[in-house]
Amino acid sequence: MKTKQKVKELDNSLVEAFKNQIRGELILPQDTTYDESRKIYNAMIDKHPGMLVMCADVADVMYAVNFGRENNLLIAVRGGGHNGGGLGLCDEGMVIDLSGLKFVQVDTNDSSVRVGGGNLWGEVDHATHAFGLAVPAGIISSTGVGGLTLGGGVGYLSRMYGLTIDNLLEADMVLADGSFVTVNEKQNSDLFWAIRGGGGNFGIVTSFKFQAHPVKNIIGGPSLWPIERIEEVMEWYHDFLNNAPDELNGFIATMVIPGPPFPEELHNKMFCGIVWSYLGDPAKQTEVFKPVMDMEPVFHHVGEMPYPSIQTMFDGMLPPGLQWYWRADYFDALGPEVRAKHLEFGSKIPTPLSQMHLYPISGAAARIGKEETPWAHRDAKYAGVIVGVDPDPANADKITDWCKDYWEALHPYSTGGAYLNFIMDEGQERIKASYKHNYDRLSRIKKQYDPENLFRVNQNIEPKN
Ligand SMILES: Cc1cc2nc3c(=O)[nH]c(=O)nc-3n(C[C@H](O)[C@H](O)[C@H](O)COP(=O)(O)OP(=O)(O)OC[C@H]3O[C@@H](n4cnc5c(N)ncnc54)[C@H](O)[C@@H]3O)c2cc1C
Q1: Of the candidates 196, 363, 342, which has an alpha carbon nearest to the alpha carbon of residue 277?
Q2: How many Å apart are CA 357 and CA 255, to the nearest integer?
Q3: Which CATH architecture has domain 217-422?
C-alpha cells in the first residue's frame, strides 16, 4: 500500500486553488478555528488533521474526494463526530466534514423522509414529530445520521420497526472516483445492500431517504433495582422481553445514578436498570407493566411523553467532551455465568457515568434475513456495549481498565462479533467476525467501487475479488 502524503507536504498553490474551488470553508492548522473544529464527541481522541473541508454542498464533497485522491491524502469523513473510536478524524490527512449538508424533508404522501448526510438525529426527530412520524434511530439526539445509519442503528424502535438500515429506502453517494450515484433496491442495488451496515467503506452519503412510521408519543422511562438483584432481574427480563409484543422494548443496563433528577437516596449507588419504551395502547400501560411492578423495582418512573423527549432523555447527562472508552459484543443468551459477571463488574463501576447496556435485537429487527443486509448477527438477542466514561482525563486508565476487564470476562459467552458502531479500533479479525458470511461479498463490492481503499478511516473492509 502506497504511503499517504501529508497535507503539509503539498504545494501551497495547490491548496490555494482547492480553497477557491469550494464554497465551504477550508480550515488549516494555522487557522484560529482549527482546534475547535478538530474536536469530536469523544475527548479521549486527539487527532491533528492536515486540513478540514467544511463542505457546503454536494459539489464540495466531490471536489474534496477528487483532491484527496489525486494528492494521495488519507481521507476521513465526519458526519456527527460521535464515533467512539474517532473514525470521523485522522492525523495529517484531510477531514471531509458534512455538517453543512443538513436538511430534513418529510413527504406526507408516503411517510418518507429525505435527510442530509450531515444531519444529527435530534434534527430529524424534531422535523418528523410535527407530522406524527419517526424514523428508528439511536438513543442520543446528538448522534450523526451518517455513521449510525451506515453501521446499522439500534434504538427504542428496533423491536417494532427494525434497525435504521431496515428503514433506508435510498441514498445519494459520492464514490471514490468522484462520481455521484443514487442507490436503492433497483439502482446500484449491490451498493445499496453494502451501505446497510457496511459503514463508510463505499463512499460518502450526501443524503438518505428513510421510511418513517406513525409515532407521536411513547410510554417510557426507567425501572431500577439494587445491583445485588441483577442476576434474578436479568433472568426474568430475558424471558419477559423475548415473549413480549414488538410494541414493548427495554434495554437493560448496569449503571450508577449520578444525581438529580433522581431522588437523593439513589445518588451514587449502583443499579441494574431497564429503560422501557412502549408504543402500544396507553390504556394498557398498567397491564403491560404489571410483571415489571411484580419484580418490585426500587424506582419506576414510566409515563407517556412526546417521542423527541425519550430521544433526548440522556443528552444532558452525556454532553460532548467527556472521555469515552468502548467495548462491545453480541449475546444470544444471558445464562447464569453471564449474569454472575454482570453482578461482579456492575458492582465496581469506576465512575458515575460508566455503564453497560444490552440493546434488544429481537422483534422486527430479528425478522430480517442474515444475508438481506451486511448486519449478520440477526439471531443475536442483544447488542451489548460497555462504556467507561468520565469528564476527567486523569481517570482515562481507570475507565479503560474496567471496560476491558468487564469485556474480557463476558466475551467467551458472546456470539463472537460486535455491533461495529459500538467498538473502537480492534482490527480486521473483529470486523470479519462481525460481518461473518457477509464479509466476502462486502470485500468484492469494495474492490469494485473503491479498489484503492480511499475510504479506509472506518471499520475497514479490505478490497478483494
Ligand atoms: C453517546 C452515544 C450514544 C450512542 N447511542 C447509539 C444508539 O443508541 N444506537 C446506535 O446504533 N448507535 C449508537 N451510538 C453509536 C453511533 O452509532 C456511532 O458512534 C456512529 O459512528 C456515530 O455516527 P456519526 O456520524 O455521529 O459519527 P462520525 O464519527 O462522524 O462517523 C463515524 C463513521 O461513519 C462514517 N460516516 C459518517 N457519516 C457518513 C456519511 N454521510 N457518509 C459516509 N460515511 C459517513 C465516518 O467516516 C466514520 O467512519 C452512540 C454513540 C454515542 C457516542
Answers
A1: 363
A2: 9
A3: 3-Layer(aba) Sandwich (3.40)
φ and ψ at 300, to 5 degrees? -145, 115
Give the Cα separation of 301 and 235 in Å (integer): 22
pLDDT tens for each residue of 351-380: 999 999 999 999 999 999 999 999 999 999
Per-residue pLDDT of 304-313, as tens digits, reads: 999 999 999 9
147 C-alpha to ligand 1 centroid (Å): 3
Q: Is 355 in the pocket of ligand 1 (CB under 6 A)?
A: no
| 80 pocket-lining for ligand 1 (C-beta < 6 Å) | yes
Please report the atom of ligand 1 found closest to the CA of residue 140: 3
- Does 205 sit in the ligand 1 pocket, CB within 6 Å? yes
Shortest-distance Cα residue to atom 51 of ligand 1: 82
Do 7-97 and 217-422 show the same overall fold? Answer: no
The DSSP secondary-structure symbol of 4 reads: P
Does ligand 1 have an atom closer than 6 angstroms to the CB of 255? no
Fold assignment, 104-214+436-449: 3.30.465
Q: How many angstroms separate the alpha carbon of residue 253 from the centre of ligand 1?
A: 21
Q: Is CATH 3.30.43.10 the right assignment for the domain spanning 7-97?
A: yes
Q: Is 126 exposed, middle or buried (0-12, 13-18, 19+ CB in 10 A)?
A: middle
Q: Is the pLDDT of residue 1 over 70?
A: no
